[in-house]
Design brief:
Elements lengths: L3 E2 L28 H5 L2 E2 L4 H7 L1 H4 L21 H11 L27 E10 L13 E10 L13 H10 L17 E3 L10 E7 L10 H9 L3 E6 L7 E2 L5 E2 L10 H23 L11 E11 L1 H12 L3 E7 L16 E5 L1 H4 L5 H12 L4 E6 L9 H9 L9 H21 L16 E5 L4 E2 L1
Parallel strand pairs: 3-5, 6-7, 6-10, 10-11, 11-12, 12-13
Antiparallel strand pairs: 1-2, 3-4, 4-7, 8-9, 13-14, 14-15
Length: 461
């Protein structure tokens, strides 16, 4: 009933393996220290059952693609063996002690900290100027984007975490049959579907969010809701064929083509540049004269920024280099590949990560941040959250704690999310709203877990 599994194989670095060995052998992860690779958890007897009750997080982060019978169009398939292997990896963390857990518990996201109610909507966007980078037979790049924004008042319908169809596919990919197929869609969020947006014309900053590789845009919902409650418009992108399931308005469901591609640094660079193109296209669609969103007039096009987790964070640098409209950026726990040119990047930038991977002077992943740090000529910070795991910065950290699955983090998920929300909001408030943020200048007694790093001296305080 037990088997060894490296719990960081899927969650370290940029969120997916760099090199995939032939014959389906286990792949190693970018940005993982030697000490981390050596730490192994065993599968607990109860873990699979607990995982099923929080499939919102764990299934959404599984790199296995969905079954072929659930697809249409050019979406790629993954083998049943691969899906089963990833299901075992997902269940590899034993249940935490001291928590009362029932299989009927409904996972929920923490309430946003800002004063505004939050509205949300989804957009289907089609870029006819370029073919899909992963499925060239598809002649246009299709994207699904979720928007969160301050609302005039709470709506009647609380938004689902993801669609019922996506829930079905993600459960099937993990061979989880002990819960209803629509379990994921019942996860409690804090935003209301299609609530009327609030704000004055050209008064709201816009933040683009990009998730990790294999991850859906929904795993950044807690961060997006919080920013929206503080008066931001937030656009999270599903990068098609790069995650386990994306549902389009016509019913098509695409799965993860890139999960089966052999990875190397050049491939990761291609991924980052492709995501940069996605981000620029989304900005065109939201801020152009024929915007796809009814609240577009509220967006201040001079105050646009981007943040991402894992591969999405790494892609933020590529996006800023490609698009001058992005005035500030955050890389959350993502190993970078696209190099900043010798001329440098003068716009504000924040690195936010975990010490196990991004402590200055310790490992290849941290070396990529050190390389970029030298080329960042504007305001910059390098912050590490003590006790964090790769997933601590996303919804997964919160949700797994609620039902007692241990991902190896030494900080509670709700605390890690509070820190992530607070520091991300402080960064954007400083650079998009010009509001002083002492929190970013020195260590905080309120958040002692957050260490300020000096790469030049390789110190943390």
């Amino acid at each position: 009933m037990t088997a060894p599994a490296d719990r960081r194989r899927r969650y370290g670095g940029a969120g997916a393996p760099v090199h995939t060995a032939g014959g389906g052998a286990a792949a190693t992860e970018r940005g993982i220290s030697r000490s981390e690779r050596g730490r192994i958890l065993r599968v607990g007897v109860v873990a699979a059952g607990l995982l099923a009750s929080v499939v919102t997080a764990s299934a959404a982060s599984t790199p296995a693609a969905s079954a072929a019978s659930a697809q249409s169009g050019p979406a790629a398939t993954t083998s049943a063996a691969s899906a089963k292997s990833e299901a075992v990896a997902s269940a590899s963390a034993p249940a935490s002690t001291g928590l009362s857990v029932t299989s009927s518990s409904t996972p929920y996201l923490p309430k946003p900290a800002g004063p505004h109610p939050v509205g949300t909507t989804s957009l289907y966007l089609k870029d006819t100027s370029r073919p899909d980078p992963w499925v060239p037979s598809v002649k246009a790049r299709e994207l699904m984007v979720s928007l969160w924004y301050p609302a005039k008042s709470p709506g009647r319908k609380r938004a689902p975490y993801m669609t019922a169809k996506e829930s079905e596919l993600l459960l099937k990919s993990g061979e989880i049959t002990s819960v209803p197929a629509d379990t994921l869609s019942k996860t409690r969020t804090n935003a209301f579907t299609d609530a009327d947006p609030a704000g004055r014309k050209h008064g709201l900053p816009l933040v683009v969010l990009s998730p990790g590789h294999t991850k859906p845009r929904t795993e950044l919902t807690a961060l997006a809701e919080d920013l929206a409650s503080r008066g931001y418009v937030v656009a999270a992108i599903d990068h098609t064929y790069e995650n386990v399931a994306t549902t389009f308005p016509d019913g098509r469901v695409t799965t993860c083509v890139t999960c089966e591609i052999e990875k190397n640094p050049a491939w990761w660079e291609k991924l980052a540049r492709s995501r940069a193109a996605d981000a620029s296209f989304v900005l065109d669609q939201l801020t152009g004269s024929h915007s796809k969103w009814k609240g577009a007039r509220l967006v201040d096009t001079s105050r646009i920024a981007m943040a991402g987790h894992s591969a999405g964070g790494a892609s933020t640098i590529a996006a800023m280099l490609a698009d001058s409209r992005i005035r500030a950026g955050i890389d959350i726990d993502g190993t970078t590949e696209v190099r900043i040119p010798d001329s440098g990047l003068a716009r504000p930038f924040l690195f936010l990560g975990k010490p196990a991977t991004y402590t200055p002077g310790e490992g290849d992943a941290a070396a990529t941040w050190e390389r970029d740090w030298k080329q960042l000529n504007g305001w910059k910070r390098w912050l590490l959250v003590t006790g964090a795991e790769h997933t601590s910065f996303t919804d997964l950290g919160v949700l797994v704690d609620q039902i007692g699955i241990d991902t190896g983090a030494d900080i509670p998920g709700v605390r890690a999310m509070d820190i992530t929300r607070r520091y991300v909001a402080a960064f954007f408030d400083l650079h998009l709203r010009k509001k002083s943020q002492p929190l970013l200048d020195k260590p905080s007694t309120r958040y002692p877990e957050v260490k300020h790093c000096s790469p030049e001296t390789r110190t943390r305080r």
